[in-house]
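ping. complex inputs:
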Amino acid sequence: MITGEQKPIDEIREMIAPYKRILVLGCASCVAECAAGGEKETAMLASTLRIAAKMKGEDVLIEEKTLDRQCVRDFVILLDDIIEKYDAVLSLGCGAGVQAVAEMFTEVPIIPAINTEFLGETRDQGYWLESCLGCGDCMLHHFGGICPVARCSKQLFNGPCGGAMDGRCEINPDVECAWHLIVDRLTKFGALDRLENIYPPKDWSKKQGGGPRKIVREDQQK
Amino acid sequence: MNNSSKLKRVLEGGGFAVTAECGPPKGANSDVVLKKAEMLRNKVDAVNVTDNQTAIVRMSSIAACSLLKTAGLDPVLQMVVRDRNRIALQSDILGASALGIRNVLCLSGDHHIFGNQPQAMGVFDLDSIQFVQVVKMMRDEGKILGGDDLSQPPDLFIGAAANPFADPFDFRVIRLAKKIRAGADFIQTQCIYNLYRFERWMGMARDMGLTDKAYILGGVTPLKSPGMAKYMKTKVSGMDIPDELIKRMEGVPKDKQREEGINICVETIQRLREVPGIKGVHIMAIEWEEVVGEIAERAGLLPRPVFG
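pong. complex structure:
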């Protein structure tokens, strides 16, 4: 999923300060899973903003709504009937959600309420971990299902570096050394000799270099 | 003047090589580099110049190497993949060779989170092993990545680092083998304090025939104080300092601690000279270059032999 965290309330208050009628817009997909922008968090943020406005004696209308997916036009279009009521939208969607709404409703400013962070997995309750960089050329089968690009601090393809100690990364003992995990995992299924090969430089053109990436599939088009 | 690598001449001539380290200044002053050059002149065969070590911004390694070269020393250009993509790395390799630099040490680099620019974007386009491979291809095949031909290949003696003290231990020698297979002519190791572990690692390297394929130089760093030893043990990842050494440093009066650090360093070098397969030492006296001559002298490494 795409993860994110809500921005500090003061920063949000500053961004919405010029506006009087605000729609707080949640998204029930990824950001709901990471407890940053789902229905519950959207209701809580709207409520917090209403209380803050009231305490400061500001005359502001703050309402909320949560879309199933903010990054999909079929859902964003549902705002068509209500958007005119507002002079700004405070989105709790990821960066893609914010832009999808902005693209469709060009007259209204769309303000991001969360910082979009990474592609990751829910490890435990309240614990999300980055595990994919979306490089466009998956190599997980070489590395025992552990991504050195996303999970090694130095993106080594031929690790581990000289800073790995007791399975921990040199940058922080809280960080697992991805290469230690890779070595352990490949040892378990008797494939450690695979790492004797020198993995060649990666083709980064599949991640960046050609502007925003797009996927066009005619078989999916009407 | 012989414009080839002195380090290479010594190693290929069968000599026991001695290299030292010179950290460039945090400023544009060439005199700092030249002063360090004078401290190291005739004491060592070649001088490594660190590349923004610990991710602190300093004078560029290429510029400082060029200053050393002009002063008549044989510099070893340290290059990290942290700050340059493959375009910049290959370009700097050509530039270094054009400036007469004849040795390069290809490294990953300390992570930028530790330095004074933690907000920087880490590049890591290539890793250190891929970088070794690229330099070798440039030198031996006259080609860059992608296959374009060079009008003139760089002339460089290629080095890589090895840390026998990092984990997982059994994989360390496999990684050494990869670096040598990628094209490393020489290896400089992390500072050795735990000789027992180092000897085990060297044994594994010998069993794999690696000591015949590349020249391995053991790294040493004289300790200045027990505090420095403890700091390195607990705060510097990939360092292995046995408690006995810390106790030994603590056991001497404060005004004798530096001397004791030098004693330990000299003893370590003497032990290393007995380890089969070791072809030299790399003395990393961090911001303490003035003691390199004394260490080399007391370890019986002076005068430096002349080869070629």
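Chain B has a mean pLDDT of 97.
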